[in-house]
DNA sequence: CTGAAAGCGCTTACAG
DNA sequence: CTGAAAGCGCTTACAG
């Protein structure tokens, strides 16, 4: 065993060096400021802190967790970490967690119910204080279940039922795209709607369709097609939309990667994005602006969503009121949606 | 405090139910198979296991870690988790870790020396058994330092010095691209070389240049430009390459995202990838095949690299011999590099 | 095959 | 302001 030896000193070592009891050292080093105050004179406290620095003291989190029954550990579930959207959300979670002295770990559920259960069970066996789910399904049976077991958790990116959630205002984001397409004069439009179980796709689609309905345009169901949230899924969905006889002149993909797939599908049919067919995506991923044909997209505050979800969970853990939050999206118009409908 | 109460039984509860000592329960439930064998009769063992199942026993990892001084925790450092390459490598690490009953957590270092130190220190204070670095810098001063402190670690994706590492054979990958360009007849070529401190960029570039040299073509230094590993970086680098009077007819970007940026730069100049200028990337990310102009790229086994790195670290922790591994890349030719040099 | 005991490094109620 | 003690849930050398 390549062991690393005694890298960190213990409270006891410091107590012996400073000639005080370990309980005093504990209160000075790891207690609340008030605890530290009343635990030792300024002089003693200072001496303890110096010994701690000299001996490279770091509290042993396993010992503390065992004693306090608080692990300062948060489990995070996402569909796939290699999805940039979730990776960015997780970065937000992790940054906020670090600020609050919490540790997080993340696992993929691949949007599979069995994996969600299994990973949650695993997190619980690791004694997490709480969980953040980035993979909620709109039906929410699983979540109701574990809420019933008093497991503290919040949702991020996707909402479900009345569980506390931090999301983008996806409904509003969908409306923004509709507004934009309407201004350009498009009335024959299509939607690449994402997974039917994800609130993101559902709300973005609903917002879009509602805004069109308000403008007096009913988008037929045949022009709303579900898809995976990736380029291959977007390509397949776009192929279906473009094959219909009355081809849409504008397509809203509820995800940037799906939009990139749609761009490819257009090209295969000899159609030019932003000329023959307008395309808009969602999330404004860093790639959107850098594509050969820059992609119109709805900016969503992915990093901030993650950070706020972590802070919402902290409130849940503290027993404070924890209301869901909906962050504001913003439309970013680029070359992929510059065209009015062709004069066909 | 929204506490979750007693979710899991303890050894003691099981011992009382089964009418045996907790040490026996421990050996049966958590010991090695041999331990379990000699710790109790088949009958007693069976009874203990039934009680464990009935009471939903899960060993408390904090208690076990405190006692054994082994946390089964691995810290992982990456430049950015929102970089798809690293996210995929991490998925490989995490999958392998789960198979071995280890927990991992991941942190961004943003390729900054100060953050590398700080995050490593944080991981150590969490009492990880070892570390995996996906953010090694070729100079390796920091790594030499912590190797000197006997911290067990391995590298993944990027190599440095003689530290055990699991990488793609990047040199060979660079050669594959050169071979391909040479077959098409390109002699005026450019390289978007990535960060100067990353072995990935260095080795891919060196392999490419060496193969050209062997073919009797010396690529001038002015046609090798460094870049960030993202689309914006690739676009900036491509702009520089295309501005020179003797424009390259083929460009190798050592990263798919940089290649996508280069695609955009070409288009801005009215050049068609795969017609006027050939483009190749690296990693064969899922997007490459789905782009409007599908991208030629070198496939690297990102997920497998991660899994193997975890297993290499396990060997290091066990004190077994741990040799570096270089996984084999493969060229995937697509439309972005179909052209011979223009007859200018 | 089984048990009793010690101890990992903390925290915290109690006492002074 | 400071200390002594108990105990969180495990593992493991020792003894029988």
TrEMBL record, chains A, B:
Residue ranges constituting the HTH lacI-type domain according to the UniProt record: 9-68
Cross-referenced InterPro entries: HTH_LacI, LacI/GalR-like_sensor, Lambda_DNA-bd_dom_sf, Peripla_BP_I
Superkingdom: Bacteria
Gene3D superfamilies recorded: 3.40.50.2300, lambda repressor-like DNA-binding domains
UniProt cross-references to CDD domains, sorted A to Z: HTH_LacI, PBP1_LacI-like
Protein keywords: DNA-binding, Transcription, Transcription regulation
Residue ranges crossing the lipid bilayer per the database entry: none
The keyword Transcription is assigned to this record: yes
SMART domains cross-referenced by the UniProt entry: HTH_LACI (SM00354)
Keyword Coiled coil in annotation: no
Gene Ontology MF terms in the entry: DNA-binding transcription factor activity; transcription cis-regulatory region binding
Protein name (record): LacI family transcriptional regulator
Organism of derivation: Actinoallomurus iriomotensis
């Amino acid at each position: 065993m390549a062991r690393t030896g005694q890298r960190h000193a213990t409270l006891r070592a410091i107590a012996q060096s400073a000639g005080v009891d370990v309980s005093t050292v504990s209160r000075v080093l790891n207690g609340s400021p008030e605890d530290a105050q009343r635990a030792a004179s300024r002089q003693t406290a200072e001496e303890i802190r110096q010994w701690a620095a000299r001996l490279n003291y770091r509290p042993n989190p396993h010992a503390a967790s065992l004693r306090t029954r608080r692990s300062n550990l948060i489990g995070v579930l996402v569909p796939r970490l290699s999805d940039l959207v979730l990776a960015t959300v997780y970065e937000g979670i992790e940054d906020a967690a670090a600020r609050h002295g919490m540790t997080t770990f993340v696992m993929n559920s691949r949007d599979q119910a069995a994996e969600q259960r299994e990973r949650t069970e695993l997190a619980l066996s690791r004694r997490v204080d709480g969980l953040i789910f980035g993979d909620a399904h709109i039906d929410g049976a699983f979540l109701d279940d574990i809420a019933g077991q008093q497991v503290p958790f919040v949702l991020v990116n996707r909402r479900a039922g009345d569980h506390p959630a931090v999301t983008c205002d996806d409904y509003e984001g969908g409306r923004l795209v509709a507004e934009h397409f309407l201004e350009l004069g498009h009335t024959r439009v299509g939607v690449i709607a994402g997974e039917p179980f994800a609130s993101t796709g559902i709300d973005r689609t609903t917002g879009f369709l509602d805004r069109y309905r308000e403008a007096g345009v009913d988008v037929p169901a045949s022009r709303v097609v579900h898809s995976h949230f990736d380029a291959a899924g977007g390509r397949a969905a776009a192929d279906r939309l473009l094959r219909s006889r009355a081809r849409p002149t504008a397509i809203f993909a509820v995800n940037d990667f799906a939009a990139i797939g749609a761009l490819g599908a257009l090209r295969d049919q000899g159609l030019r994005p932003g000329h023959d067919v307008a395309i808009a995506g969602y999330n404004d991923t860093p790639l959107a602006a850098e594509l050969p044909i820059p992609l119109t997209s709805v900016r969503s505050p992915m990093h901030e969503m993650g950070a706020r979800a972590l802070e919402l969970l902290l409130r849940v853990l503290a027993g404070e009121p924890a209301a869901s939050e909906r962050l504001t999206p913003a439309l970013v118009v680029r070359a992929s949606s510059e065209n009015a409908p062709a004069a066909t």
